[in-house]
Amino acid sequence: MKFFDYARATELSEAIGEFAKPIAGGTNLLDLMKLEVETPSRLMDINHIGLNEISPHGDGLRIGALVRNADCAADLRVRRDYPLLARAILAGASPQLRNRATTGGNLCQRTRCTYFMRLGTRCNKREPGSGCDAIGGVNRDHAIFGATEHCIATYPGDMAVALAALDASVQIEGIDGSRQVSLRDFHRLPDGDPHLDNVLTGGEIITSVKLPAPVGGKQIYRKIRDRASYAFALVSVAAIVTLDQGRITRADLAFGGVAHKPWHDPAVGRALIGNEPSDQLFSEAADLLVNQAKGQGGNDFKIPLLRRSLIAVLREATGIGGNDVRNL
Amino acid sequence: MFGTYDIPDQRNLLDRTRQGLIGAPLERPESGLKVCGVAPYAAEHHPPNCAEGVLVTATIPQGRVIALHKDEVLAMPGVLGVFADKRMLRRPAQGTAGKAPVQDVRAVEYHGQPIALVVAETFEQATHAAKALRVEYEASATVPLDPEGLETEPGRKPVVLGDLDQAMAEAAHSVDLTFTTEGHASAAMEPHASVAEWQGDDLTLWGSFQMISHNVKELADSLRIAPRHVRIRSAYVGGGFGSKLGISHDAVAAAIAARELGRPVRVVLSRQQVFDTITRRSETGQRLRLALDAGGYLAGIGHEAWVSNLPDEPFAEPVTQATEFLYSGENRKLAVNLARISRVTSGSVRAPGEAVGMQVLEAAMDELAEKAGFDPIELRKRNLPSSQPGKDRPYSSRMLIEALDQGARAFGWQDRKPRPCMTREGEWWLGMGVASAARVNMLRPAAARVRLEPDGSLRVQSDQTDIGTGSYAILGQIAGEMLGVPIARVTVELGDSSLPSGAGSGGSFGASSTGSAVFRACEAIRDKLAHRLGVPIEALELRDGMAIASGREVAVIELLRGEAMEEIGRIKPGKTDKDYAQASYGAFFCEVAVNAFTAETRLRRMLGAFGFGRVLNARTARSQCLGGMVWGIGSALTEELGFDLRDGQMTNHDLAGYHVPCHADIPALEVILLEERDAPASPIQAKGVGELAICGAAAAVANAIYNACGVRMHDFPMTPARLLPKLPDPF
Ligand SMILES: Cc1cc2nc3c(=O)[nH]c(=O)nc-3n(C[C@H](O)[C@H](O)[C@H](O)COP(=O)(O)OP(=O)(O)OC[C@H]3O[C@@H](n4cnc5c(N)ncnc54)[C@H](O)[C@@H]3O)c2cc1C
Ligand code: SF4
Question: For this UniProt entry, which segments traverse the membrane (chain A) (predicted)?
Answer without folding.
Answer: none
